[in-house]
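ok so I'm stuck.
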Amino acid sequence: MTVVLEPVPDHIPLPAGFRAAGLHCGLKKNQLPDLALLLAESPVAAAAIYTQNQLTGAHIHVCRDHLARSGGLVRAVLVNARNANCATGQEGIDAARRCCHELARRLGCPDEQVLMASTGPIGAPLPSERIVSHLDALLERASRDGGMDFARAIMTTDTYPKAQHGRVGAAEATGFAKGSGMIHPSMATMLGFLLTNGRIASTNATQAMLRRIADRSFHRVTIDGDTSPNDTLLLLASGTAAAAPEALEAGLTTLGQQLARTIAADGEGATRLVTVEVRGARTEAEATAIGRVIATSPLVKTAVAGRDPNWGRILSAAGRAGIAFPAERARVWVGPADVYSGGKPHPENEPAAHRHLVDETRIVLGVDLATGDAEADVWTCDFTKDYVQINADYRS
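replied:
not stuck anymore, here's the structure
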């Protein structure tokens, strides 16, 4: 059973000045879209955050170099699915550069204003000729109505496209993401793209804003504790609409959180979206760190899959996070049910906790640390046997 937070839209608006497209170029089977494009009418301010994995996809080398040489200006982002172009050496980097060059030549812009992102199985050479041969068709399709085509073309094991839209005063923002497995908060946990026509003061301000947004959204989602070598999060801001910086950041953070929840809900083999609520911490950073440990715990995640309100696993995971708190004063809840507080369990409340796990697809697990007033939410999913099957068959 797939957990869908809301109906997948047929259309997603793009901020003024942006276009998008997606099509099939032959990387996926069954004519599924696998090549995508984000296009700005003129160069826009951009910032990026990448994986912390020591193995990195070829596109990350290219993106870092291009953003440095362009002064943080981007005209287009090309994305391919079903091939990570990772662990492919200099040939892989050269292939990504060729794709960027050919797209830049068609747009009449410098190569460094084109970025690329790749996702899929590791180790296969990038079929750059196949990609290049479809660039003209991709550009022809690019339009203000192409957002959902883009969202579908970047999918891998995702069961549905992930796209969100919002307004902040006169500004608009649209976000896209792909991710279903190999998801963990070590940046960027997936491929993610945030577009806005809001104005940000400078390149440095754009980068700083993106990091704060990520820390409160994409850095708080985990599926399996594994981090892809291709993880990339991009923010593109055209600056054509006025919006207060604080309001713009808040709107983009909300957009990122919505996308993070859809990633968790669509975790490989997932049947439950789990929100881990950490309350009563000394700092937000401590609350986030404990939430991540709980959300990553295989024992917690399999208990949810088995519909078992095993509060001991939740409290034990919090206790091994390396952050001191008085366990005898802590409180643990599952849905509406208080299952541990005052230094003792409450077995009389476990039937209500069990019903929450059985009846709801959006699960809440919580712990109050009794050390302060800070809090954080982290999102994950249950860990089912289907996750094992999906990844056992990934390259078959």
